[in-house]
Specification:
The structure is a single chain. By secondary structure, this protein is an alpha+beta fold. It has 2 helices and 4 strands; from the N terminus they run ββααββ. Strands 1-3-4-2 form a 4-stranded mixed beta sheet. A hairpin with a 3-residue loop joins β3 and β4. It is elongated.
Length: about 100
């Protein structure tokens, strides 16, 4: 399925509606402890980076599943939104507009 962050994809289409995928994930206690130590000295916290990467991929897949349930051919104007829940959870949403080619 074509996913684009732009509206113009070079094809004529009809809009089917909004689609989205959401996931919320957290790191385990050991990872949180390691991240706390890393916070003292600075630098990238690779465990959290991986968690966000995994969350984005999961959110995209769920958005695709939503679009497929509407018989969409593509998703345009795709965006991400994310936010923290508490101190150790991260929620990621992928959303866009499902379209059907004419």
């Amino acid at each position: 399925m074509l996913i684009s962050t732009t509206e113009n994809i070079g094809k004529d289409y009809e809009v089917l509606g909004e689609v989205f995928g959401v996931t919320t994930q957290s790191r385990n206690v050991v990872s949180n402890f390691g991240a706390g130590l890393k916070n003292l000295v600075g630098g990238e916290i690779k465990g959290y980076t991986q968690m966000l990467h995994t969350s984005r991929e999961e959110a995209i897949q769920r958005m695709k599943d939503d679009a497929e349930s509407k018989n969409a051919d593509a998703i345009v104007m795709m965006r991400f939104d994310s936010g923290s829940i508490g101190n150790d959870m991260q929620s990621v949403v992928a959303y866009g507009t499902a379209v059907k080619f004419r």
